[in-house]
Specification:
This protein has 247 residues and is α+β, with helices and mostly antiparallel strands. The chain has 7 helices and 10 strands.
Amino acid sequence: MKRDNNEDNFLVFPEQNLFAVFDGMGGHAAGEVASGIAVREMKEFFELTGKDPEATWPFKDDRSKSYDENRLVISIKLCNARIIEVSDQDSSKKNMGTTCVSCYFAERDGQPKALVAHTGDSRVYLFRENKLKRITIDHSLVEEYLRLGKITEEEAKNFPQKNIILRALGQQRQVEVEINAHDPRPGDIFLLCSDGLSGMVDDKFMESIMQKQVSNLEACCKKLLDTANANGGVDNSTVILARYDGA
């Protein structure tokens, strides 16, 4: 409701069971360039490795992680490298960046996993048995202060440096990606969003919208976004709802 351009971008790639939201940042619309690069690179990497599992990866894998975890993390590292490459070539894009939150459904040996990887303050929630639970931790100053007990939940609501994030793509050549594996159950809904939604609609209210609208995911998305705008819409807001129906 307040901005001329939308710096958010998203990826819905059902052929690879991959979903992601990116919230761009940087002056002169560079944020939307960064988030757009991220969408393109992640999709291309998953297309390439989906067709050719033996394809060479641009970064070394982590032996402590599974093939699928590495695949998702490396796609995000590739997004980071490409954003930095473009910003190095164009001074008007200097320091552009984007958050990233992604959910990739994979199955190995009959074991389904929902792999959630992120960097920044875009979020994933899990809606299960009519309850909504956040399953990512924001890489932000306010979340770090909460974790360390420096501020209370109440103080966090009006924290002056609420928009300071501690990790993002495009800021450093080595990016730290947090990844966690979840055991999905049929009927689970994974909600991915930029902070334009989570900053405007509190978790309890999101849960009540989900409870009422869950049978129609498209209508549910629209209601969540309409509520963010009705509450002020000070930021771009993006939401993806991905339902796991079982293998």
